[in-house]
Amino acid sequence: MIQITDLEKFYKTEEVQTIALNKLSFNVKEGEFVAIMGPSGCGKSTLLNILGLLDDPDGGSFMFNGTEVAGYNERKRSELRKHNIGFVFQSFNLIDELTVFENVELPLIYTGVKPAERKKQVEAVLEKMQIMHRRNHFPQQLSGGQQQRVAVARAVVNNPKLILADEPTGNLDSTNGNEVMDLLIDLNEAGTTIIMVTHSEHDAKYSHRIIRMLDGQKVTENILA
Amino acid sequence: MLKNYFKIAFRNLIKNKVYSFINISGLAVGMAATIMIGLWVTDELNFNNHFENKETIAQIFQSQTINNTIGTGPAIPRPLEFALRQDHKDNFKHIVMSSWEQPRYLKFGETNIYRTGNAMQEGATDMLDLDIIAGVKDGLKEKHSIMLSESAAHALFGNDTALGKIVKVNNEDDLVVTAIYKDIPANNSFSDMKYIIPWKHYITTQDWIEWSKESWGNNSFQLFVQINANTTMDVVNSKISDVKKNASSETAQFNPQLFLLPMKDWYLRSEFENGVQSGGRIENVWLFGIIGLFILLLACINFVNLSTARSEKRATEVGIRKSIGSQRSQLIFQFLSESFLIVFLSFIVALGLVLLFLNGFNNLASKAIVFPWTSLQFWLIALVFVIITAFLAGSYPALYLSSFNPVTVLKGTFKSGRYSSLPRKILVVAQFTVSVALIIGTLVVMNQIQFSKDRPVGYDKEGLIQIPVMSNEFIGKKDIMRNQFIASGGALEMTGTSGPMTNVWSNRSGYTWDGKPEGFQEDLAYTSVSYEFVETLGLKVLEGRGFSRAFASDSNAVLLNETAVKYMNIKNPIGKYIRDSDTEDQNPPLKIVGVVEDMIIQSPYSPVKQAMYVFDSEDNTAFYNVRLNPEKSTSENLALIETVFKKNFPNTPFDYQFVDEEYGAKFKSEERVASLARVFTALAIFISCLGLFGLASFVAEQRTKEIGVRKVLGASISQLWLLLSKDFITLVIIALLIASPLAYYIMGQWLQKFSYRTTVSWDVFAIACFGALIITLITVSFQAVKAATSNPVKSLRTE
């Protein structure tokens, strides 16, 4: 599903140039659950942003489902993103002014789904995430665990092929964290590819493969299952 | 999608009440001001829209060159009518001679009313497309007829039939009512024309009118025309421009050039400078149009500043939406729809404000503007106005907010850059530049009015009334009336004049005097006056004396004002003679018996015109000027004078004007400009301060932690206040530096149009600068002090 070859990303300030990704290469097959680990500043989040088509690489190749997407413009990227990729963030990133239902509905609005169909799909996913009873609440009225459930619901409502999770349990206690990981496992078992950046060895063990990074490069790769 | 956008926008509005209030109230005030100015501008531009034939109606103007200066005006001589009818009639559908609009007494039975009207030729009814509601359209055909407006007919006859009834005009002429026409609505020329009498009757009412039939030099009438559909004003102009010059060798020396002033220019573009159309009220239309636009821009700047200042709060949302798949264009659309919602809400509030203040505005602007509820055009323009305002206010924030990089904002590390507040600072400077320039401009206008009001008028205008006595019944009664007025105790003195003391009704040329330079073309303001002229008006005699009953020869005497002596270059004028070059044989020469101080009779902003006050030996009195008795109250004096007046003229209503009020009316136009400017300046300051208040509270909020740390480290409240206020004060000082020279230049140009003018003095700038700084300090100090006095523990806990 994903093939990256010699991927490079630099950050430049007035005086120094920092290498965030240094000729990084690896593949992810459809249906895989890959965890990416490494110390802060090793390039994990940069990688995730490029995989999520939120950022552009400075060099190398990024093939998504057999198509080179590294040079895509913003319009093409957002088109590809909204149909294929869901995001789960450490800090949930829900829109405060929208209710649970409206937050989850948002990706369907952008993909042009009709209102009646949207309602059906949102309710289905809220049921699945066991958050239906909170559908009319605003994010600030929910606990961290509930907020992350909503975020996961929003990420999956479009049935994306790929979910990118950036430390999804980072802001949660262990009980809520485990619940979120269980949700991701369920999604993965249902066929969704998941790439998760994490600091947690515990969470990483849920994955099929752990890629460890240092200074923008892959250092090890452990297959768990 | 749109629903989602509006939902978020609405919830944001509710959530951030202070910002919403600042945005909506600022925009509403700005929009209300713009709507009112828009209504006023429309009203001005629609002047004369009532007339069906407005595109083809014109008035004949003439430019004449006197001593290398071209003067332009609508007064024309009678023979012009005959020349146009004889040689150029193919160009015109109507040629209509007219008198000047003049008030007359109209009497039926015991009812006596005083109304203004004109004497006009028959074509007037068709040319002006008068709406005849009773009687015949050719109601001016018969010499002894009169056409009345509906309101005049109602005032005279109540609900009875007016047609066929006889109206006594000025207690002299019996005229039969032949037609009633609908009153011409306000905001149109001729709206004060409450009756029309036939021209053929008018020319027989006074000898001088009859005599002027062949005089090309007597410019005492008006001529309106309607050109034929198959021609244009320019074509007609080219044909008629030299008609007078070619017809009369007597006036050819002044190079008279005739031209048509189209009806659309009568109200807005009727001023001429040295023969060239130079504007008129259109300048005020432009001025207030621009002020309206600026006020709207100020309100939009608030929106831009507050939206971008608070961008960090919206950054996450932008990041999320982008990560979910929103394109930038969709985000731009979202933010624009938010600004549309806010602008729309502001528009609703603005409409409320307009309805609330329209009456006050009408009073201020001397208008009778009605809110155009039923005008589809108004609502369409309003829609465009809302959309344009939404774009003005929302475009930059939409482009700015939608440009955020989702990676940065979602990482939570987003902070506005070092220079991100620069555009805001520039906009604040722009706001205060406009506000300060408006303050300076308003102060200069007010100073100019005061300066001109303080100008010595040359006579004592307080306690002086003028009684119009233009009908023939007053002829020969002047001395009797004077004696009786004085005897009544209501008056100290009285003099008769052929024109009011606040205007020049006649200008003359064609004189000779010893030492007159070769080729000199004089242009003298002419008023005939009676005995006690000097005494009644309180004039200062600089040389010689006033007219005196002790000198029989004063029947052929003249007084000159000091400007006339200089203008005519007469050395030692007393005892010298001025001769009428045309009628030297008939009219005896006029002996100069005195030189009086200049009196301001025309514009208080212009130099005093050279004037001659000729002794009135033929009783051409148009006004009794009565000096009231200062020992008694005005009401007592007026009652006594009225009693005398009524005893002598029982059928004539007692009408009078206070000369000082008439003089004060000369400032009306500028005072109106000043009043409007004051209001709009206040609004501009209010809007700018509202924005500043919003920004100050934003900055205070943003720096909460810093303030807490500084307090913990020992900063005093005044140090913190200074810290938070100095940035804004700096911006306002920059605005002052930009606005001051700008306003100095613009107001300097504005003052150029007045010959008698004040200077743009330093105290105006001092007041404006001091005022702007004080207002700024008060505005920002509220937030600064609030932040500085807050509990540092609380503010540090917010982290």
From TrEMBL, chain A:
Domain of life, source organism: Bacteria
Gene3D superfamilies per record: P-loop containing nucleotide triphosphate hydrolases (3.40.50.300)
Taxonomic lineage from the root: Bacteria, Pseudomonadati, Bacteroidota, Flavobacteriia, Flavobacteriales
GO CC aspect terms: membrane protein complex
Official protein name in the record: Putative ABC transport system ATP-binding protein
Keyword Nucleotide-binding: yes
PROSITE patterns recorded: ABC_TRANSPORTER_1, ABC_TRANSPORTER_2
SUPFAM superfamilies cross-referenced by the UniProt entry: P-loop containing nucleoside triphosphate hydrolases
InterPro entries for the chain: AAA+_ATPase, ABC_transporter-like_ATP-bd, ABC_transporter-like_CS, MacB-like_ATP-bd, P-loop_NTPase
Keywords assigned: ATP-binding, Nucleotide-binding, Translocase, Transport
From TrEMBL, chain B:
Major location (coarse): membrane
Keywords, in A-Z order: Cell membrane, Membrane, Transmembrane, Transmembrane helix
Record field: transmembrane: 21-41, 285-304, 331-358, 378-401, 426-446, 676-699, 720-744, 764-785
GO molecular function terms attached to this record: transmembrane transporter activity
Localization terms from the record: Cell membrane
Domain MacB-like periplasmic core, residue spans: 20-242, 515-636
Domain (ABC3 transporter permease C-terminal): residue spans on this chain: 290-406, 679-792
Protein name (record): ABC-type antimicrobial peptide transport system, permease component
